[in-house]
Fold:
Amino acid sequence: MTGITFETIKNMLHPGLIMIGFGVLVMLLPRPCRKPLGLIAPLTATWAFFQMSEQSSLTYELASYIKMEFIHFDSLAYAFMLAFCIIAVLNGIYGEGIQHRYECGMSLIYAGSVMGVVLAGDCISLIIFWEISAFASTYVIFAKHDFVSARASFRYILVHAFGGNMLLAGLIVYMFHYGNQIDNILDIYGTPCFWLIAVGVAVNAAIPPLHAWLPDAYPESTATGTVYLSSFTTKAAIYLMIRMFAGMEVLVWMGAAIAIYAACMAIMENGLRRLLAYHIISQLGMMIAAIGAGGEIGVDGAAAHAITNIMFKGVLMMGAGAVIYATGRSKITELCGMAKKMPVTAYCFLISSLAIAGLPGLSGFVSKALIMDALNEGGYNIFAVAVTAGGVGTLLSITLKINYYVFFGPCDESDIPEIERQVPWTMNFAMILGTVITVLIGIFPAKFYSIMPNMTIVHPYHIGHVMEYIAIFAGGSIPFFLYLKKMKPHDEISLDFDWFYRKPLNSLVLIISKVIYSVYDWCDRHAAAFAGYLRTHFGDPYLWTRANSNVRIRKLSLENENRLVGDMISVILAAFVILITGAAYIAG
Amino acid sequence: MIAETLEYFVIAFISSAVLIVLSKIILQNLIRRPADYYLAEELKQEEMMLNSAGLSITEEIETNPEGEMTSEHISVTPRFTVDETVDMHLIEREKVPERFIEESDHIKQSVDDIRENANAASDEMKEIFRDFPESPELSGSSETPESPDEGSDKAGSDTDSIPEMDELREIILGSAQAEADTFETDTKADTFETDSEADTSETRAEADMFEAYTSEAELKTGAGEAESAETESAEAGGVANAAEAGTESGIAKSDEKAGKNPKEKKDLKENKDTKEKKEKKDKGKGERKRGRYPSIKMRKDELLAMAAERGIDVPDHFTKKEIIELINANESEDNKSRNKNGNNRNKDGNNRSRNKNNSNRNRKKKEDSGAKNNNNKKNTNKKQEQKQNKNQKQDKKQEK
Structure:
């Protein structure tokens, strides 16, 4: 009996809700509780995750025909949940010494809500967790509490409110016609509901031209906040795309274009985290291409790259955050020779940057192998080359550019920035753990593939494939050193699609608000005067005739009566108002 | 395998070179902007929004040499304090209350500084509020005449600059005149007195309402003008009665002198009144338009003319703002020099002039009280007679 009860409770454990609960607790309890709870929360969620099975179920019946399914546990959810739990633990360790209470609480809520999205078995619970994640992530961006982060978070919430509403509208129509379950929606391709859902998901998946919020907002958060952000929102969108859009051919060329476009933008960037943000988009392009290729290998490729990306991009963001935390500088032009002062950070960053470029022996190589196989098997050879070119862009901008100019390049001792704050050991420890996981995935690919939804097995370590990547590394690196002077970053920014809503749209809104305000102001001013006029003139109706012809009026008609002209006028006016009101009432 | 490796090598080399050229040469020239490209404008917008938060008319408000925040049309006046931490100010646009502004501590501090500079004690701000329509110059720089005769010209010119006050006075006087005329014609024509009596009582109420305003204006106007004499008599007590008596006696006297029909006289007087009103209005508008104080709303040539009037050389390249600053600086220097020369505009300048106003008013009242008492007596006698007549007529009616 006791065993059955325990089994029931075990099956109802929801890691996402646990994280959200801990997040609320962290915000409510006194400050000293933040540190332990910030770490206990992801550990508990991870424990709950490992307790889950396909029998796990948590449902709530809204009505006889609507059921909310908070836990829908399958192999795809398992793969993503595993990655989210691991990165949540790493983030908990990383932010242990540097997070504020509310930031920590909201980060936990944000992570928990994204887990809720992954586990959601129906459209209603999906949209609920989706919206919670949007608002929680807005606070995570705002957590830095400066002018730039405030503005960035405002733009972020506007874009995500648009995306969220699109998704909500699409899901409502979808539920009305096709039911509450989350399924592949390619069957309804071209319907308004399809496009609404597509736009809603595309915003979160940062598909150009709806991507500009990502490099705009992510770099403006705190060190820990950026790591959280880079791990969750976009990956949840990729998860949903796998569920709903797998096999949509148009995504193949879109993905390839995104990979190249974002790589180009990253090469131009000077901001450390902004550059990495563009690389999130570039890597998302590769995942989207794999989703477009479809099939078991395509889905596995997208899922595998999402998971490896969570790991190495997490470490890269942690490294960038550590450098910014220690030096207070975030621009590549302001940094150099950091490997001498922050060796742990430098080497973890180097390994992860090699992993993202696909160096054999590391996790990126393993997941990219699946993507390339999916594209080649689907006959998308040209797009495979484009994706390779995108990978070369990654090599140029992260592996070579950041490592050369920030960590390992030639630099005078005097030019090396001073360490203003020592990086806590927890930050280094989290980076080391993440790097180890990246290496382990690269060393044991079979184990990694086995946790994929379709358990597709490829053999990435055959000599041809290894040589391909070595050739890519060599071929991609030579132009970098040839154009070394050109590659030097400049303290400038590059315009992106956010220009449209930060300049012309902003001006339009300002003009509209000025017009509205002018009208309001005019009404405000004149309403007071008008009210005053009415007050005095109704209070003393004699005033109506005082100004000009009251004498004449009195002489003409009313002088023989023992009453005031004003009284007469007020009575006539009142009668007129009553008549008009009555007529309007009857007509209405 | 080697061919495949070479193929990938070439692909990687070409794509790397293309990406570098694309991003570092082509796109660099198209989409690269200064680092503060967005930030500068956002900060500017933020500043603009903060400046206009709760007060869209900040630009129009200036600080005159006396330190009070004012402009041609807008005044900001301290009204009352809440818990000594928040001050409430009333903003008026052309004397129409527009909105309240809540002033928090740190702003209050700066306003206090302004008050100190303006040499106006905070407990007198209420008075300043009431005095505001008289324009700062009246309360400050222009001297109140020692005797009505001496100062009539000066004060008269000063009141001209207050079209609103003139309008108010005209309205009251016009109304009183009209009532008196009506009364006169009514009584002459032997119509119903009850009506006219009711009207006069109303006139009294009106006159009472605006007495506060006219009392200020009348002081400046002096005793020379017939209208102000009427208003003074109204102020002395029995406002409407005095107005009636004044107008009646005035008309009667002038009738005697000119030997004209009273109706024609009345029309002539009305025409004269309207002409005077128009002139004063135009003058007032002109004054308002021209501006006693330089305002950013004025045209540059007007500002230059104003500067020239004050003997200030203004370089051609000066902007409107700079010209205004120059004029203000010049005025403040003038004030300082006046203070040094033993002028009343010292620390208690406003106070003293106000006290002088009050003392003058009292003195005037005392001087006029004798004549007014006589007038009052005459009025009461007349009234008694009228009442008796009325009673008799009513009795006759009842008998009928």
